[in-house]
Amino acid sequence: MANAEVLRDGQGNRIGEIETVNGRQVLRDKRGNRLGEYDPNTGMTRDRLGKRVDVGNLLLVLLKQ
Length: 65
Prior knowledge:
This protein is mainly beta. The chain has one domain. The protein has one helix spanning about 60-65, and strands at about 1-10, 15-20, 25-30, 35-40, 45, 50-55. It has a six-stranded antiparallel sheet with strand order 1-2-3-4-5-6. It is globular, with a radius of gyration of 11 Å.
């Protein structure tokens, strides 16, 4: 089961979304491109290539890159 949260900037423009599937959170930009993933089981955030970013949910940092 999936659940998505739309992310908007200060003017209300859609800038991305975070989709939660089986506890994992996947970040997509406004075009639907996958930017990264956070896995609460490992506590790690990974970028779109699967490279470890750091420990903790840092998905919003990936959105700003």
